[in-house]
Design goal:
Length: 396
């Protein structure tokens, strides 16, 4: 009986070549594992292609619901944004893909798992940290770090030589990764950080010049920090993204263009489309502002850079990440209510928010006369808080 390897397979040139290479190099049965995260591709066609290349078995796993509910929503609850801009759409997908891959490897009694990430990127780290956290004994095979193929041309030549059925079309001048939450672009023409991305590159977000000249108002409703309604109609997580992505994209919402610090040590220019995610994150902060205790919010906000870094670097399954997520979940217990927003020319503007758990007290906040707050009390408050400043100055 042959040994088994479970390969995270996309159906493209790289993973098709890897599938064949693994069979030959390790004299093993290669099981192709295709994760459906809402990338909008023909996964059945990818499965057929895997069989043609020589996969002994193919798994197509629909992970969309788990992806949104167990990964994306907890990330939004934590307000995680890497380096102040990136909404982590690629990063948050990798631990789930890895988790299911390890589960399949256990079921199939495979001795190894493999992926198609290159040796320069973040994804190799994210996949392999997850593998090691979930099954420290599994062998990990990363072909791009050990084989003698160095380029796309090498892969094409390998495919031709070994009669691997691939359809090589005109390559996009950048790489692209898509799921239900976002689309990422990097490499190729985008490697020049001064160069403006072409409008035709974007798949879901319209160029501002082509967006409607009339703003759109929507209402997003939350329960315990999770969006549950769109325009007062109950909606499941996956369906929310399917519906809100084109709505927000139509109004030019969700483009991010940044130079980010990769975990492996280099800077990289990335361009991202996250239309629905942008709207939901802004709405979530708005309802938190009304319902979350000040000190709880400030403590949570100090954790945002760390949580974002852990997600970006691939430490989703680490002890510290689970502890931080437990705290975040506790903070979300009363984050319930409605947020009214306006989408217009790439902007998302909060128009209003309301909640039965509101901590906002108009009788306290008013500039008019009230019976709850004695303004003269502020004198002592200021004196006490300025004492250390006065003492510091008098020392000089």
């Amino acid at each position: 009986m042959k040994k088994k390897i479970v390969l995270a397979y996309s159906g493209g040139l790289d993973t098709s070549v890897i599938l064949h290479w693994l069979k030959v190099q390790y004299n093993a049965d290669v099981i192709a594992y295709i994760a459906d995260l809402g990338q909008g591709e023909d996964l059945k066609k990818a499965a057929r292609n895997a069989k043609k290349v020589g996969a002994s078995k193919v798994y197509i796993e629909d992970l969309k619901s788990e992806f949104v509910n167990d990964y994306v929503f907890p990330m939004i609850q934590s307000s995680a944004i890497y380096e102040g801009t990136y909404l982590l759409g690629t990063s948050i997908a990798r631990p789930l893909i890895s988790k299911r891959q390890i589960e399949i490897a256990k079921k199939e009694k495979a001795f190894a798992v493999s992926h198609g990430s290159t040796g320069k990127g973040n994804d190799q780290v994210r996949f392999e940290l997850a593998y090691k956290a979930l099954n420290p004994r599994i062998q990990i095979i990363s072909p791009w770090r050990i084989w003698n193929l160095k380029s796309r041309e090498d892969c094409i030549n390998y495919a031709k030589k070994n009669k691997i059925p691939i359809s090589v079309t005109k390559k996009k001048p950048y790489s692209c990764d898509r799921n239900l939450y976002h689309i990422s672009y990097e490499g190729g023409i985008l490697e020049d950080p001064w160069l403006e991305p072409p409008d035709e590159m974007y798949e879901t977000v319209r160029p501002l010049i082509k967006t409607p000249n009339k703003p759109l108002k929507i209402i997003l409703s939350f329960k315990n920090g999770i969006p549950i309604k769109l325009n007062n109609k109950t909606i499941k997580g996956v369906d929310l993204f399917k519906k809100l992505n084109p709505i927000a994209g139509k109004h030019g919402v969700g483009i991010v263009d940044i130079v980010e610090n990769r975990f492996v040590g280099m800077k990289s220019r990335g361009v991202y489309e996250t239309p629905a995610g942008t709207v939901i994150n802004i709405a979530h902060r708005a309802i938190e502002s009304l319902t979350m205790d000040r000190e709880v919010m400030h403590i949570r906000d100090t954790l945002v850079p760390k949580i974002s870094q852990l997600i970006y670097n691939g430490f989703w399954f680490s002890p510290e990440m689970q502890s931080l997520l437990s705290y975040v979940k506790e903070t979300q217990k009363n984050i319930t209510g409605d947020v009214r927003l306006e989408l217009f020319k790439g902007n998302v503007r909060v128009l209003g928010r309301r909640s039965n758990y509101s901590l906002y007290n108009d009788k306290l906040a008013t500039f008019e006369e009230d019976n709850l707050y004695d303004q003269s009390d502020a004198t002592g408050f200021i004196k006490l808080n300025s004492l250390r400043l006065i003492l510091n100055k008098l020392k000089k």
